[in-house]
Amino acid sequence: MTAHRTRVSLPAELLVYAGASGHMEEIQPLVDVLRERFRLLILTNKTDFTSSLPHVTFVRDFGPGLFNQALGVVEAAIVAYRALSQTGAKVVIATGPLPGLGVLIAARMCGRRAVFLDTLCRFSNLSAPGRLASFLAGRNLVQWPHLLSKAGRNGVYWGQVL
Amino acid sequence: MIFVTVGTSPRDFSRLLAGADRTLGLLKIEASFQIGYSHYTPRVAVRTRSFLTREEYLSEISTCEIVIAHAGIGALLAATRAGKGIVMMPRLKKYGEIDDDHQTEMVEIVRALEGRVRAAVVFDSLDLGKAILHVQEMPQLGTSLPPALAFRIADYVGSISAPSGDGQSARDPPHD
Which residues are CB-contacts of A87 (< 8 A; sequence separation ≥ 6)? Predict the structure, then answer.
């Protein structure tokens, strides 16, 4: 079951991957600030995303398991690649869920700059995407200062979403 | 009024729903329940729904006194931004409620955020009543402002996407 629902206005300056559930709650205050300065395009897995902002919703459910999760990453990369190609967005911001890695891969393929925001809910270690993001994003943002040493050479601590 | 929510996980979390149902019945507190894919039907609920839109979810939070939830960061953030207290119980792998036990880290997160959240974490539903009373006694939160992190990110995005430069600041890694 696939549904790509698209509301895109061209051009966008900034592509934001917002995930769903807790990840959506984490990114919301950032979107509220960023939308005042940049034209945004939101990529989300949230099926009832109702923002007035331009957005692309992708909700294919591949099911559990590593292989299926990898398929989700590939799908996110394809959706993000298309969005970057269509809008010309120069910068990508991605959050915690695994498809965020696909968005970062698309950013690398398109030669765009990327920022990854690891989730506040991982306190003792980085999330799996957070560990890999150091290879893909120019800035790997952690939300706990004690995790900075695990975030790679691109790791930075700029505060929390709360 | 208390709002009980278990989020959108496809796993059952009747352990929390049954505990909240029992506790709120004893305390004679009205409650609204969002039960997700759980099988338990609350008896004390004035409203029971499987899922809510984001608007309905935020509306429930804004009108309740305290939230009872799984230990997810979304629930903590939504309750805190609305100035509400929250009691959280982690989903646990040993009960088949989740794939890993990362929600148990909420204990340390709440401790680290002390003074910025009105929150408590319990592992046993028998402790819900005590936790509700504890959260009720916590001081009210101030007005929720956009986090400084948002402005730092906005400044960074502005610096690397400015048309006047080549987008490569001196501190940026080469592959950025």
Answer: A8, A10, A11, A12, A15, A41
